[in-house]
Amino acid sequence: MVSKTTTGVTHYHVQKKRRAEFIEEWRKYRKTVIRKKDVVMHDTARGMRCGVYIGRDGDSPTRTMDALVHEIDAGATSTIHRHSWDAMLFIVEGAGWTEVDGARHHWKPWDAIHLPAWAWHRHGNEGDRPARFMSYSSEPMLDTFGMSVLEDRGHEDFSKLPPRPPYSPGIPGDDPYSRRLRRLAGEQKKRRNGRIHTSYDDIELLATPRGTRTKFLVDRAIGNEASGITQVMIQFAPGKTQSLHRHPGEAWLYVVEGYGHSFMGTAPDNGQHYKWEKGDLIVVDHFLWHQHFNDDPKNQARLVRIHMFDSVLETMRALMDPVVLFEEAQDTLVSMQEISQIDWPDDKRPNK
User: CA triplet 48, 52, 54: central angle to 5 degrees?
Assistant: First the structure.
């Protein structure tokens, strides 16, 4: 029997067309600075207001993380819910609490909260004015795999709610299945005992060779057991800048206070400058060289950096090796002597 060659729509043509359309569509949603004034707040069924800086529910899809802002009025309590992804909060203003699996954690400005996957949680405002906080979650990554699940139980008492999904304990044996059971059981035990609340005052602010002072808010280095999402507070001295560097993936910086601009370009000397101010979100994407500048000669600027380096980006580095995916312009780093000569303002956060 003789076969004949046909040239219909093969997997090659289908995939090539699909990939091209994805990138073309994706580029429509890219913004470098998302302005606070452009984020629309909506009343929600949870008893809070919510706005989307970047994410599918604000018609600006992402692939690994999303960024939302929430407001809760004085005396209000949100509904209780849980989801299959984890998230982290950064408190912008106001005083209140977040209850995670029945344990209440009180917070105030610049504190951080980690919300583990499948943990029941709700928020309350115990102050005399609205409280505001940012949230960042790994929901887009779970959605990519078809594993995003959200469950809301209104104002049901925590004692009546089901626990997190059960898991089987490890069993003896050196076969692959026994090893997998022990490994996954150990991982779940660790993840269900990680740090939840980080009080801003509990972590020391330290100078770095990048010319800034930083402290972890959510990170495995301080005991959080997250999916790779991390938050770091970055303080810029008056009129100072950060070293020039680049990396792939979605990395964002929320402007806590101050104003300045960021350089982003395809090469260290070929790019554009973008201005930002308090409440804006800076989006670093497309493996761009970037550098952030504090344009205030008298006051510090503070940014909170968010990314998923410990999961998504490390996976990319393993898959792409030996291609270098994290680079720094060494001539923009500063020495310890230079750091010691910077006149740092007092590190003082607002009371509410």
Answer: 155
Distance CA 198, CA 53 (A): 23
Distance between start and end Cα atoms, the chain:
82
Q: Do the Cβ atoms of 149 and 139 come closer than 8 Å?
A: no
DSSP, collapsed to helix, strand or coil, labels residue 178 as: helix
Contact 191, 223 (CB under 8 A): no
Measure the CA–CA gap between 124 and 211, rounded to whole angstroms: 38
- pLDDT tens by residue, 300-314: 999 999 999 888 888
pTM, two decimals, is 0.93
- Digit-coded pLDDT (tens) for 90-110: 999 999 999 999 999 999 999
Helix (H, G, I), strand (E, B) or coil at 268: coil
The DSSP code for 311 is I
Coil, strand or helix at 187: helix
d(CA 243, CA 209): 8
Q: Determine the Cα–Cα distance for residues 269 and 291; give it in Å rounded to an integer.
A: 11
